[in-house]
# Entry
Amino acid sequence: MASPLKSLLSDSCRYLKSFQMYLERCNEHRLMQDFINNQLPNILSRTVRGKSHLNVIGVGSGSGEIDLKMLSALHLKNPHITVDNEVVELNPQQLSDFRDLVSLTPGLDYIRFHWYEMTAEEFEEQWKEKKMTKKVDLIHMFQMLYYVRDAGATISFFQSLLNRNGKLLFTLLSENSGWAKLWQTHSYQVCNKEINQVSTNDIKGLLDSKGLSYQGFALPCQIDITECFTEGDENGELLLDFLTHVLHFSKSAPPELKTEVMELLRHPDCSMESDGKIMLKHDCELVVIDQHS
Ligand SMILES: C[S@@+](CC[C@H](N)C(=O)[O-])C[C@H]1O[C@@H](n2cnc3c(N)ncnc32)[C@H](O)[C@@H]1O
# Structure
């Protein structure tokens, strides 16, 4: 049955505002920064060995903060390496924000950027049409596989581009996160058909079946959802839109659904209360696929 609720993806301006609010209330980017500082240099040690140039692709990069942090960490350890960085991002505003960030960040002259305002699927089609044979050393897709038609097919395509010792990194929700419980419980009403309810376990199953080696890193994220429980709070409404991926969820959802969603979000399976704050358990995992041959 078609969902009567409008998808957040139908309004890119509201999507960006609610994603920004999510970033402000969640520790995900801080945990990503820790990962980049503490784990990434070791993970990439074989990838960069003996290289003077790397090909990198970022898919669904948003406004590029995490991408630039990764590239800076790489440069710090390997100042002699130059980079071709292809950015695949379908939202024009995000792509423009990324370009602005690049122009405002000094010391990026070791990177050549190539911008693709398109979906991952369109990029794949274009790559195949042009019969590209280029190999890639590092590919990353953080929190974006929910938005492709077939996450497994997207992973398989990008993994096929990896150079020997190349790495593909992606992040997704873990199955036991409070947010995943919301999506599982109300999948027909919230998050729409446009959203792929994929978790790291689904992709790991695919990687196992193909005999690919990978490593998982837990990202124990939390989102401060306290404002969601204050009727009429604009920040809370933006966050609820992002959590449900429903446009103006508070105003458009039927009262029973709204009550059920709010009860679930507050349930101890999904969130915990401390210091007067309600923190949603948002366990994610960062998976690194390793190309041996
Ligand atoms: C949740 S945001 C994550 C942004 C960034 N990777 C981060 O972790 O901060 C998802 C991003 O994927 C982009 N996106 C959505 N569908 C896409 C697709 N099919 N192909 C490429 N990018 C897509 C969105 O525009 C958005 O910038």
About this structure: The chain has one domain: 8-290. The mean pLDDT is 94. The pocket of S-adenosylmethionine is lined by residues 19, 59-62, 66, 88-91, 94, 119-120, 142-144, 147-148 (CB under 6 Å). Residues 8-290 form a domain with the Rossmann fold fold (CATH 3.40.50.150).
